[in-house]
Amino acid sequence: MAYQHGDLINNTNTLTESFIIIMNKYVHARKNEEFTGHELGSFLTKKTPELINNYLLTYNYIKPGDYVIEGSIGQGVWAYVPWIAIMDKDITVTTQQGVYVVYLFSKDMERVYLTFNQGVTKANQEELLDNKKIIRETLDFMDFNIDDNVELTDRGIGQKYELSTIAYREYKKDDLINERITEKELIDDLLKMMRIYKTYKKIFVQSAVRENEEFSEKQDIQAVEIIDNIKKYIKSKGFIYPDGLIENFYLSLKTKPFVLLAGISGIGKTRLVRLFAEALKCKYKLVSVRPDWSDGSDLLGYKNIQGKFVPGAVIDYIKKANENPDEIYFLCLDEMNLARVEYYFSDFLSKMETRRRKGVEIVTDKLLDSDTFEYEDDREKYGDIIIPENLYIVGTVNMDETTHPFSKKVLDRANTIEFNEVYLANFKLDDGLETDIDVIPFKVNNDFLKAEYLTLKDCLEDDEEFIMEIIDKLVEINNILQEANLQVGYRVRDELCFYMLYNHREELLDKNTAFDFQLMQKILPRIQGSGEIIRRVLVKLFKFTTGHDLSTEEGNIGEKAMKYVEANSDLLYPRSAAKLAYMLKRFEEEGFTSYWL
Predict the structure, then answer these.
(1) Which pTM value belongs to this model?
(2) Measuring CA to CA, how many Å separate 593 from each of 168, 270, 397, 589?
(3) How far apart, in whole angstroms, are the C-alpha atoms of residue 273 and residue 447?
(4) What is the pLDDT of residues 177-196, one digit of tens each?
(5) 264 with 351, same domain?
(6) Which residue in 542, 455, 545 sits closest to 493, CA to CA?
(7) Phi, psi dihedrals of residue 326, rounded to the nearest 5°
(8) Enclosing domain of residue 274
């Protein structure tokens, strides 16, 4: 007897009923009905996943909380190929990557496939085919199909689903309606596929985790050696940077994947980024900022008058970083402040502040809002792009009359490394430099640069005493800054602590040297102005960095401060002391001062 159904969307209790309702209603809804608030949305994304979850719990195939089961009918517009996915949280929590079990509905709604599949967004075609071949050869897929005959659609991401499918079972709508496929068969197939999924995890994931842990331990031990190799590699190319700069650059990147390099033109800022990336065998892209950039569309892209998405200067490179999570990507924005950074980079900065953990990944909100896209092809290509954890952005900046100053919003969100020291005589044609052949780049995985802390709660309890020592110093500094309403907030506190923790663990710099760098990068750039209150702040900070009180001095204390720094080689924070002395001298000579030259 043929299966009969009325409008069961609110009271269906079987997979068979659910699939038939979806397949009978979806095409008409996609072509004729409003997407927002449609009943099929909650039915396919909530009710049916809950039904599958209950089946798996009933048969003791999963433990509560171990899996994510979710469905999708599209993002803002109807998808041609809706799906319901079952994902082991230890493997993936997104259909963009990893391996998972997923029901895929064909565009014409004549077929639904139970598939063993892999994420298509973060992998290229060659990777999908290679992974499919390896997994098919390794696992026993019993009586499931392992050919490439899945038929979903003739366009868009649905075609990628066809390519990414490793194994599958096809269910035709007519067979479901006429009970040639029973509910028991659907459940039996699902349970068999889940057994295969668990086997996959044991063979491919758990063994890989053990290997990665061993590799990470090895890399932790070798952090000093890796950085030493970076310095040797850079030196072999004929470039010499100030002591501590490479360690500082590394710690800044690990603290947050957005760093500013400031200095006079021609000092080697852009070259540093490229050589650092080369030394680690990372991907690298240089983008020159244009003076006429005025909003985020210049960087990311915009919708033109025909409704077509026009990619911006960096979006395709960021897309590649999304698609290749095992590679490290460096993006260098050259002469970043030729245009007003707050105008063209503010949206990007805001998205960066949404960094959070999702499983083992660090993710952000999507870079482009859904209303950026009118066409489904554009949405499929660019709609899911985030700031991935393997992307590191470095801006080079010149601080002169041709450029724009930075606001506190930008300075708070980056480590700003200034280097203006120039030693023109520091050059010899033959000084024993290693040759290109002598120094081989050392390829690392992203754990070397990836942030381990996003909030102070991520830190170990064993680190609490060290963290409180840093915070106590910061409180003392904040009390000084507060007089001029220049105090720092929680973001700066956290990131300064992260920097100090990484350095403490890896023993790259002396503790005072590391804190000196952080004063230069997170505190002093905030200070500028012309009032007497600014002068008092500078004097008090000078005492903090040197222990020497200038408040009782008479006359030109800026000059005295500079002489004091020159005469004493054992200052607590010598870099910051020298900068503060310069700022005091400038204040007295010009009636105004700032961190920048």
Answers:
(1) 0.65
(2) 69, 27, 19, 9
(3) 19
(4) 999 999 999 999 999 999 99
(5) yes
(6) 455
(7) -85, -10
(8) 237-451
